[in-house]
Amino acid sequence: MKKILLSTLTLLCIACDKTSVNNTVENIHYTKRNQAVLNNNNNTNEPSYTLRQYLLDNGYDTNRNGVLDTNEVTGIIVLNAANKDITSLDGIDNLISLNEANFSGNKIRTATIRVTTLANLNLSNNRLNQLDISGATRLVNKLNITGNPDLLCVKASNNQRNLLTLSSNFAKDSQTTISENCN
To answer: What is the reported pLDDT for 3?
Structure first.
C-alpha cells in the first residue's frame, strides 16, 4: 500500500508544471538576473541598461511612481553617470536643461545627442561605434570621446566640425574623423 501511495505521489510531482498552477508568482528580478547570466555566458547581446532606467534607479523619479515625468527630468542640469554599465542613451533628448553630462566608462555603442543646452559631454572609454552630435548645437568646446577604439566617425554640423577640430578642449583618438556625413 505504501509503495502505491509513494508511486502516485511521485507521478503527481513529476507531472506538476508551474504553468498549470493558478497561484504561481514569477520573480521578475530572478528572471532578469538569470537572463543576464545566460547572455554573458553565451557572449550574446548584453542586457540593456538605459539612461531612463538609471534615472529611475537613482532617485530622479521624485514622486516614486515609476515614470519620469517632464518636471522631474527638465530640472537636470548636470548628470554624472560614469561607470554605471549604461548601454543606451535613449531618452537623453528629454533632458532639455542638461548642460553637462559624464557617461565615461559605460557600454554605450551608439549615441544621437540633440540636447541643445548641452555644452560639456564626456563619452570616453565606452564602446562607441557611431556618434551623432549634429543636433547638440552648443556642444563645440568640451567633448571627450577618447578610449573608443571602434569609433570611426563623429557626425557633426558644419559649424561644429570646424570648431571641434580647432578646439583644445576636444579630446578624440587619432583614428576618429569628424564629418557631416557619417554612414
So the answer is: 67
Reported as a single tens digit per residue, the pLDDT across 69-99 is 999 999 999 999 999 999 999 999 999 999 9
Q: Got the DSSP string for the chain?
A: -HHHHHHHHHHHHHH--GGG-TT----HHHHHHHHHHHHHHTT-PPPP-BHHHHHHHTT--TT-SSS--HHHHTT--EEE-TTS---B-TTGGG-TT--EEE-TTS---EEE---TT--EEE-TTS--SEEE-TT-TTTTSEEE-TT-TT--EEE--HHHHHHHHH-TTEE--TT-EEES---
Indicate the number of domains in the chain: 1
pLDDT attached to residue 23: 47
The verdict on residue 2 lying in a domain is no
Q: Where residue 170 sits, what CATH number does that domain have?
A: 3.80.10.10
